Amino acid sequence: MSQGILIASDQNQEWLLPWWWRHYSASNDYPVAFVDFGMSPEMKAWCLERGELIPFTLKMPRILKSSVSLDQQIIWENHYGKKIWQRRKIWFKKPFAFQLSPFAFSIWLDLDTQVNKNLEPLFNSLLFFDIALKRDSEEIQWLHRERGYIDSNEVNYDCGVVAFRKEAPILLHWIEEIEERNSEYVFDQQALSKALAKHALFELPELANWSAAKGINPDALIVHYHGGYLKEWIKQQEMQHSPA
């Protein structure tokens, strides 16, 4: 059974790679495939020393600000800042990167996830399911419904940690949502949540993708440092870790 880890980076986020690798490799030796969203030559070489480097050559749908209504543009910028438009172009690459995985069974990890333990339990979740991920908190569910990002009968899932089978039909439906209706979604995970309404999945426990915003949890399998201020904390830790 081919199992491995899938991550991706562009030049703006590649500073996270050494931090991510240091925590991951302390308790795991699954092979890692790095998808190149536009890394520097130095970090491409760094990745090649540790795993497989996969160029991102797939054709993407157009992710245009102009396709979003003016009212929605204002709302999104007020909620997430004016950099949201460039970030969306990166976020929506995620399901396409899933297609490039060289593994039959993969675990996708965002670069801001700190792996604290062996990831075998996540692979085990794929024994009877095509995909496994964590349901967002009730607070996030309410917020997304309040803002109209998901319908009242839908569930929002966190895409920072995703275990999946390469041939899972849900991946194609996720891509279809982005190709046909990306102007309706701020994030890739909203498109996935919409697609998941018609598919079975395994819901990961909260400890499999613990939000760092909730504080330190020694029992967490993975801690997710989502959001700008949490990434800033990582940066400060890396500065202290780097040799003078």
Describe the structure concisely for a colleague:
The chain has ten helices and ten strands. The protein has helices at residues 17-25, 41-48, 70-80, 84-91, 94-99, 120-124, 138-146, 169-181, 188-196, 228-241, and strands at 3-9, 32-36, 52-55, 105-109, 113-115, 131-135, 157-165, 202-204, 210-211, 222-224.
Describe this structure in words.
This protein is α/β, with parallel strands linked by helices. It has one domain: Spore Coat Polysaccharide Biosynthesis Protein SpsA, Chain A (Alpha-Beta Complex), CATH 3.90.550.10. The protein is 38% helix and 19% strand. It is built from ten helices and ten strands. The strands form two sheets. The chain has a seven-stranded mixed sheet, with helices on both faces. The chain has a three-stranded mixed sheet with strand order 5-10-9. Strand 2 (32-36), helix 2 and strand 3 (52-55) form a beta-alpha-beta unit. Helix 8 packs across helix 9. The longest helix is centred in the last third of the chain and has 14 residues, at 228-241. The model has no long low-confidence stretch (mean pLDDT 90).
Query: Could you state the order of secondary-structure elements as H and E?
Result: EHEHEHHHEEHEHEHHEEEH
CATH fold-level label: Spore Coat Polysaccharide Biosynthesis Protein SpsA, Chain A
Number of E-state strands: 10
Low-confidence stretches: none
General form? globular
Mean pLDDT: 90
Helix content: 25-40%
Largest sheet: 7 strands, mixed
The CATH architecture designation is Alpha-Beta Complex
